[in-house]
């Protein structure tokens, strides 16, 4: 009996607190397209926790994973319209909205490792790129990693020629389209949420997904082969609606900036671990054969794909490529 009353009191108290907060509470809807147990999904939840704790409930962060609210293209439109306040789209997704420089990150073998990535994303170049989003009503807050993409298919992939005539799902980036054409593959632009079904029904034959996305979306279950080509980087920009962000009380904004900084530290550590774990889990599933190419096989992919850099230099910006090169050595 006593317990029951206590539960009612606690319930009523939380209910009232909830109502009291609801009146003046600042709500941040954070929409994303991948599973909650991905680096992005976990970091979104981590940011929610820090933001709500540190603002003492003044801010409520509502995380919507798995394209529950919007698919890739729609979520950027929703952000611009103010229907959501925060997103973390992959860098490839800013190209179609006219900020082509972000497609530089899609260039094959641009980075050899996470250290090289961070020299660009966590430094001056990353900030310069963010300034290009402002005229679109978007403000960039942080860069998060996912990892390095690999080719998957139902046929073994050992050489670039093995991709000839294969329908590969890509994100809507012109650089990725050129990458596929260079390999003789047939690029199919598609939202992330549609990939599993497209593989299952044969609309596409393969993917160039990063391990944690391949694993958590279960796409590996409908792909017999995975070759660890690591041919491209997948990363995110955490972005907010600029008007919303600029309109926040200064103290709240500073607190949220701090929460984002700490979340970014957490996310960058997590991403690599999750990638490695996903590869191990895919191997252990026995559903997909995971192949590590020899150095010579990897070099063949790199050599074939080098031409994409030259072909796309004008689109993404020659100066940007030069600065990236200088930064990464
Ligand atoms: C994809 O579309 O493959 C990725 O950008 C999805 C994501 O957000 O990780």
From TrEMBL:
Which CDD domains does the record associate with it? PBP2_TRAP_SBP_like_1
Note the superkingdom of the native organism: Bacteria
Q: Does the keyword Signal apply?
A: yes
**Can you quote a single GO CC term?**
outer membrane-bounded periplasmic space
Q: Name one GO biological process term.
A: transmembrane transport
SUPFAM superfamilies per the record? Periplasmic binding protein-like II (SSF53850)
What's the protein name?
C4-dicarboxylate-binding protein DctP
> What organism does the UniProt record list as the source?
Pseudogulbenkiania subflava DSM 22618
């Amino acid at each position: 009996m006593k317990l029951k009353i206590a539960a009612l009191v606690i319930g009523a108290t939380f209910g009232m607190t909830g109502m009291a907060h609801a009146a003046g509470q600042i709500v941040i809807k954070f929409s994303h397209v991948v599973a909650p147990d991905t680096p992005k999904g976990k970091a979104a939840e981590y940011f929610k926790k820090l933001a709500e704790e540190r603002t003492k409930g003044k801010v409520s962060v509502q995380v919507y994973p798995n394209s529950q609210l919007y698919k890739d293209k729609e979520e950027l439109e929703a952000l611009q319209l103010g229907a959501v306040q925060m997103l973390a789209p992959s860098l490839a997704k800013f190209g179609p909205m006219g900020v082509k420089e972000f497609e530089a990150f899609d260039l094959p073998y641009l980075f050899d490792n996470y250290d090289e990535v961070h020299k660009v994303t966590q430094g001056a170049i990353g900030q310069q790129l963010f300034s290009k989003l402002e005229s679109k009503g978007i403000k960039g807050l942080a860069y998060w990693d996912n990892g390095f993409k690999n080719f998957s298919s139902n046929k073994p992939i050992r050489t670039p020629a093995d991709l000839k005539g294969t329908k590969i799902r890509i994100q809507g980036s012109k650089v990725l389209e050129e990458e596929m054409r260079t390999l003789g593959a047939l690029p199919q632009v598609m939202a992330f949420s549609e990939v599993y079904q497209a593989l299952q029904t044969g609309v596409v034959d393969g993917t160039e997904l990063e391990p944690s996305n391949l694993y958590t979306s279960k796409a590996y279950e409908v792909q017999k082969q995975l070759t660890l080509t690591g041919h491209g980087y997948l990363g995110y920009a955490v972005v907010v609606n600029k008007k919303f962000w600029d309109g926040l009380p200064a103290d709240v904004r500073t607190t949220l900036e701090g929460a984002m900084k700490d979340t970014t530290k957490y996310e960058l550590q997590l991403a690599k671990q999750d990638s490695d774990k996903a590869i191990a889990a895919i191997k252990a599933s026995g559903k997909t054969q995971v192949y590590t190419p020899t150095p010579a096989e990897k070099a063949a992919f790199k050599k074939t794909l080098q031409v994409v850099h030259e072909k796309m230099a004008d689109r993404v910006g020659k100066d940007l490529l030069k600065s990236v090169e200088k930064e990464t050595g």
